[in-house]
Amino acid sequence: METSKSVQKKILSGLFWKFGERITAQFVSLVVSIILARLLDPDDYGAVAIVMVFITIANVFVSNGFGNALIQKKDADNLDFSSVFYINLFISVILYLILFVIAPLIADFYHMPVLAPALRVLGLRIPVAGINTVQQAFVSRNMIFKRFFWSTLFGTVISGAVGLVMAYQGYGVWALIAQYLTNTCTDTLVLWITVRWRPDFKCSWKRAGSLLNFGWKLLVAGLLDTGYKQLRNLIIGKKYTNSDLAFYNQGEKYPNLIVVNINASISSVMFPALSRFQEDRIRMKQMTRRAIQVSSYVMWPLMLGLAVIAEPLIKIVLTEKWLPCVPYLRVFCFSYGLWPIHTANLQALNALGRSDLFMKLEIIKKGIGLIILIASMQISPFAMALSLIAADIISIFINAAPNIKLLEYSYLEQLADLLSPLFMALGMAVIVYPISFLSFHGLWVMILQICAGAAVYLIESVCLKHAGFQYLLHLFKTKRGK
């Protein structure tokens, strides 16, 4: 049985490698996406966004449920992993064949002939994802996150090179498709080479059934969540224009790039760590609370800072043709800033084995969100983006409710952990925003705002002795002292 100290050491190591993986890979990905956005038209991005809706929904069937069940199960062995491997592969091939058949119907519905071949080619990601899901579960369960670092890095660099070469050659939408497909294939291949796990030639339906008992609820929850998120893309792509969809997605991309990577780093390490302490509710509450404090402390200044510099950033980086995405970007900054409290509460439920509650929460949230979406879709794509904030605020209270009883983590404590860094970041934003009126070149104004914002937030953190700041400072001193 592992001690608390040994698990903490694994958590710190896991956070280091997972965060390093996301930062390194996303830096490369960011550079590539900026160059591609300058080379390609918004319509190209709009077409790929529609294709990705169907790929993403299909991926839920092979990526959600079984993977988390393997991590959560205390005594999972190679027979469990092998059974999931073969079942996932079978399901993913069936899903791909379904997409292959219906691709022309989707193209006709959107009056875009390119969608049929694009969906058939990019759909090859689904069987690959079926393999990758089991690999990721093995790595996460054993907390060997260094493997993710190398697989993601190679996948991002190689796929980026492929996308750029094809874009320069004038392949348009196919440059983006090749980039996405190459990324998934390379990531999976590197994990296959570096991770010492291979499936046995055995498949137990009994074992799969026990895993499914936990995983099917997460699968349903994942389908609801993914379907709800992708529904906006489907509606904008059909009701409005490809350019509207491209601006919506581009506005979401940059806050998503920051938050999802930080959030994924914390949650991917947090879930297996919490699962080891599922019998110790006091310890679980401490870890859940720390996750909200630290991730909120890091995310809020990044999100509000990004919202402040949005216009000069887009103009300098992507050129003026992408300026219509600025309002979307600012809305998504606030929406994504709320993610830490959602993620921490839901990961705690998963670690406790309460996938039943997880599913019920998703049904309630998506039902409310759907009502808000239907009302906003009649107005404009921007109104649809704004509706996300309303849904996210309501979701805070829904996600937090079970842990009030399970972990004795009250609403007041959770809101204090979330809002404390928000108010600090708002103070920073109010001080920094007037700098935008200076008559300097946009680049210098943006650099000055970033430097001033970092200085103000650091001063606030020291003066207020924020818990997230104190924890990160302690980690830094501990690492430095070794």
Description:
This protein is 85% helix and 0% strand. With 482 residues, the protein is an all-alpha fold. It has a domain at 240-482. Helix 4 (78-110) packs antiparallel against helix 5 and helix 9 runs antiparallel to helix 10 (242-276). The radius of gyration is 22 Å and the shape is globular. It starts with a helix and ends with a helix.
| SS elements, strand count | 0
- What string gives the helices and strands in order? HHHHHHHHHHHHHHHHHHH
Low-confidence stretches: none
Report mean pLDDT, rounded to a whole number: 80
The level of helicity is over 70%
- What's the tally of helices? 19
Cα-atom Rg, whole angstroms? 22 Å
Strand content: under 5%
Overall morphology: globular
Q: State the secondary-structure class.
A: mainly alpha
N→C terminal distance: 25 Å
Strand count, sense and closure of the main sheet? none
